[in-house]
Amino acid sequence: MANTGEKVLIIGAGGQIGLELTENLSKIWGASNVVPTDLKPTESFKNNPFEQMDALDKDALFGIVKKHKITQVYHLAALLSATGEQKPMSAWKLNMESLFHVLDLAKEKYIKQVYWPSSIAVFGPTTPRENTPQYTVMEPSTVYGISKQAGERWCEWYFQKHGVDARSLRYPGLIGWKSAPGGGTTDYAVHIFHEALKTASYECFLSENTTLPMMHMEDAIRATIEIMQAPAEKVKIRGSYNLSGISFSPKEIANEIKKHIPEFKISYKPDFRQAIADSWPKSIDDSRAREDWGWKVKYDLPKLVENMLVNLKEHNLVK
Ligand code: NAD
Ligand code: SER
Predict the structure, then answer these.
(1) What pLDDT, in 10s, does the model give residues 119-158?
(2) For atom 2 of ligand 2, which residue has the closest CA?
(3) Is 158 tagged catalytic?
(4) What residue's CA is closest to ligand 1, atom 8?
(5) Which of 118, 152, 275, 285 is the most exposed place for a label (fewest CB within 10 A)?
(6) Per-residue pLDDT tens for 25-62?
(7) Which atom of ligand 1 is nearest to the CA of 171?
(8) Which CATH number fits domain 8-173+217-242: 3.40.50.150, 3.40.50.720, 3.40.80.10, 3.40.190.170?
């Protein structure tokens, strides 16, 4: 039985995270209380009151928030790291301006709570790369990373100056079987499963030993809901929390896939995304999330690989 009480708006709901978050929040609050929005509709939202909306259109956002009496906004629309380097000014505009629209709605008390994701991209080449601490050198070298770092500071500022209840996680690369990734540097770790099942081979755009922090989508969605449901006093960091899942390289994930598909072969052809990956941490220290609101990861690499292969096959989702 669904809970009642919150009316939830999801901006960028048609993307990799939004599709799964809409499904999970609908189970909690009831589909009629979860309003997915995006530039275009998708078939996945047949039970929800979908609204077509550009996140940059402040008036449209305001109208939808009033119409549905929204209490919480999950703001996911953004251009990710790889697309952001190709369209730097569009990325800056979307990633920053749309965040201000949402934070202003909370400041003006139209909504009670905001969720906005940050990323490991806030770190840069001068950051310690192993077990990267919550507080450390942060000199991101991508437009995406700069926008996420600035967004974190704005969330904290709106909290301190205006009491806005904004909550945020620095997601690692996310891997799920239900939805496709959209323009990130960690996307290879989703594509590899589709190609493994389709052709038993994959040409990776990162080099074999490029270790990055990653996480199963189920863990990421659970973390998102847990931080939003945590009592306000437990959410002590109002910029964004480090969040850690598992770290692996393309070679390590390929070796794990070979345990299920022995004929699987991987080759490497690094492109412009290699430099982005080389500027990011290899692993993340998320002790503050564990201490403050009880975060605990579930998926390790063997479990993640098995779950991806079984579900993509079972649900006939290989693309
Ligand atoms: P995605 O690219 O898959 O989805 C983004 C969605 O936003 C798309 O459906 C797109 O149509 C929509 N969108 C783009 N421009 C819009 C606009 N002007 N108005 C309304 N909607 C618009 O991205 P994702 O992977 O789901 O990421 C969601 C959020 O999580 C982003 O803020 C991203 O930075 C963050 N994040 C994602 C990852 C990851 O691995 N997926 C990791 C770290 C952080
Ligand atoms: N997965 C994201 C990207 O690669 C990290 O924020 O852009």
Answers:
(1) 999 999 999 999 999 999 999 999 999 999 999 999 999 9
(2) 184
(3) no
(4) 15
(5) 275
(6) 999 999 999 999 999 998 899 999 999 999 999 999 99
(7) 43
(8) 3.40.50.720
